[in-house]
Amino acid sequence: MFHDFNPQDGQSYTDPRALLAAVLAHPHGQELARLVDRLHQDSQSQTQQDIRLVAIALNLAERQGIKDKPYFKSMANDEIRRWIAQHSPKQEIS
Questions:
Q1: How crowded is the C-beta side of 81, counted as CA atoms within 13 Å?
Q2: Nearest CA-CA partner of 19 in 42, 3, 1
Q3: Which burial class, exposed, middle or buried, applies to 57 when counting CB atoms under 10 A from its CB (0-12, 13-18, 19+)?
Q4: What distance in Å separates the CA atoms of residue 78 and residue 56, rounded to the nearest whole number?
């Protein structure tokens, strides 16, 4: 079953209060609101992890004196991790 959100009284789809009211009016509104909140929290924590990974790569590039650094913000996390592994100093095990 699909429920349309029809803004009233000059409200728009971008009005968070109107949208929240519409979500909560849905038969599964509380579950949907919890799911959206969880997705929002996950995306914020992922963004913080991405920023830390870029900072680590930039710090490593500066310490290594690399002049032509890649644009890390455009790279996927796995690509950044591979770059870090490739450019990290090798530690000898004695």
A1: 5
A2: 3
A3: buried
A4: 13
The single-letter DSSP state of residue 73 is G
Q: Which residues, 6+ apart, have CB-to-CB distance to 4 below 8 Å?
A: none
Query: Which tokens sit at 54?
Result: 């870029």
- Say which residues have a Cβ less than 8 Å from residue 69's Cβ, sequence separation at least 6: 58, 61
Q: Which residue has the tokens 């038969």?
A: 27
Q: Summarize pLDDT for 23-58 with one digit per residue, the tens.
A: 778 888 888 778 777 877 767 766 777 888 889 999
Residue with tokens 């009016």: 25
Rounded to whole angstroms, the Cα distance separating 31 from 50 reads 29
Q: Look up residue 49 and give its two tokens.
A: 């992890």
- Model confidence pTM above 0.85: no
